[in-house]
Specification:
Elements (H helix, E strand, L loop, with lengths): L1 E5 L8 H14 L4 E5 L5 H5 L7 H11 L13 E3 L2 E7 L5 H7 L8 H9 L9 E5 L6 H9 L2 E6 L3 H16 L6 E7 L4 H14 L14 E2 L14 H4 L4 H16 L3
Parallel strand pairs: 1-5, 1-6, 2-4, 2-5, 6-7, 7-8
Antiparallel strand pairs: 3-4
Helix pairs in contact: 3-5, 5-6
Length: 263
């Protein structure tokens, strides 16, 4: 089992867009994938045409209070995703906030242990990939998702409001002897001088992990690509309009992630 966490403390940076596109892309290529929504908004389920549900809160709540032999099997919380036979999802919604609060209580088990324990049965599946979509806040669930991840993808608009979130995650991972796998610029505008300058600064500060290298024709995800969040269709942009320029740019990012994560 390999775990890929998509995280940033700022909302609206494209975390769910990237998580969904990566999960469906990998599943379509034949890899077994579990997409886990740790966000209280439940947007991932809605995008994929599923009803919102608090499956994650139920799973983690059970993990915190019951012995393994008393728990429901993890399969009870895995929801098939229509159109993608290799993809299942653990849906999260509003009660994830309560779970986050419970993990902050004195005497509570460390959040990373709870999340790792909850997902432990998945280790039995050879070649399984788990994609964790985190919420727009530095809570206990995001901390746990970063702690157990094999790879971390950080999307961010090239603006000061998201820069702090990127650097904070970089510092936290560095303290643990790890690094960010990919920083994906999102919603940037090619004609905006501020955006271009910020992206060049990111590249100098964080190195090749930043997916912005014009010489290599790697552009991250400009604003036009994020129309990939077409909720009413329940399909990612690369599948819905494969020949569109935005779909091609999304594919570049996905192919690079797969290469950098060696999956």
């Amino acid at each position: 089992m390999r775990i890929i966490t998509v995280a940033n403390q700022k909302g609206g940076t494209g975390k769910t867009t990237i998580a969904i596109h990566l999960a469906t892309w990998l599943a379509q290529s034949g890899r077994p994938v579990v997409l886990v929504d740790l966000d209280t908004q439940g947007s991932a389920a809605r995008f994929l045409g599923l009803d919102k549900a608090d499956d994650l809160a139920e799973l983690l709540g059970m993990t915190m209070v019951l012995r393994p032999d008393r728990r429901l099997p993890l399969s009870s919380f895995l929801c098939p995703v229509p159109g993608y036979p290799n993809l299942v999802m653990i849906r999260g919604w509003e009660r994830s906030a309560e779970t986050d609060g419970s993990l902050r209580q004195p005497g509570a088990r460390p959040a990373r242990e709870v999340l790792a324990d909850a997902l432990a049965p998945l280790q039995e599946r050879t070649g399984l990939l788990v994609v964790l979509d985190t919420g727009p806040y530095a809570g206990m669930l995001q901390e746990a998702a970063l702690a157990i991840a094999d790879h971390v993808i950080v999307p961010g608009k090239p603006e000061a409001a998201t820069e702090d979130g990127i650097l904070d995650i970089a510092r936290r991972l560095k303290a643990a002897g790890r690094g960010i796998t990919a920083v994906v610029p999102t919603l940037w505008i090619a004609t905006a001088k501020e955006h271009r300058t910020t992206l060049e600064d990111w590249r100098r500060t964080l190195g090749p992990a930043v997916y912005y290298d014009p010489k290599a024709r790697l552009w991250g995800l400009p604003r036009r690509v994020i129309w990939g969040e077409i909720v009413r269709y329940g399909r990612p942009i690369w599948d819905l309009a494969p020949n569109d320029v935005a779909a091609r740019e999304m594919r570049k990012v996905l192919v690079r992630v797969v290469y950098d994560a060696k999956i």
